[in-house]
Amino acid sequence: MVSTRTILFIHGLWMHSSSWQQWMDFFNKKGYKTLNPGWPGDASTVAECRKNPESIANRGVTEIVDSYAKIIATLPEPPIIIGHSFGGLIGQILLGRGLASSCVAIDPAPMKGVWQLPISVLKASLSILSNPFNFTKAKSLTFEQFCYGFANAVTKEEARELYDRFTIPAPCRPLFQAGTASFAGIETKVNTKNTTRGPLLITGGSEDNQAPPILGKASIKKYNSSVISDFKLFEGRGHSLIIDNGWKEIAEYSLTWLKKNGL
Could you tell me the domains of the chain? Predict the structure, then answer.
């Protein structure tokens, strides 16, 4: 049976919403309706975002989540959410609020209560978190930082293509909010005790430096086991897994999982 459900795609830090275009084309062909709205302050193109980082700056997790909640309120029914990185965390927050029918959180940023801090995460975030004056700013990744945090599992040639095509400045505030969530703030808190929520899939890439699998596994353990909460590890994949040459493997697995759960 062809689905008529809507999928809401949510990008993460340093990625433009256009990074979801291949996924949208894939799911459109399967009968889904798709949306890929950007974060507050994002422009419609990568070039515009790079020219106007001040419009992106100083946006926090709550403002971003609420902006998607307003979009969802205009839809005829709660959508499926597919989010990557911070988009995966945002999707889980919305799922916990009961605003989504299900969520696929691809290599998501950690929620409040996930205390693990692998060295690779610290290294990937240090350029931002080491300067408290970055809190209200929007910053871009250098190509070298992108290669470490996102594209360490692909060739340098492919990494350069992805960097030039999709990366934009990102607000630093969410990174600080996630980094201090263990002892302050509730912006990254997820209602994991909600037993009326829809199914959840969290993925991890074995080579991901930005959001290693240990974070996703720790997140899934927070959820009430009476509701579907699955974890899938993709071997040999880094944080760029939604945009690099192997993106379709992740998309096809997500589709199979959705179908298995009647979505």
Answer: 6-260 (3.40.50.1820)
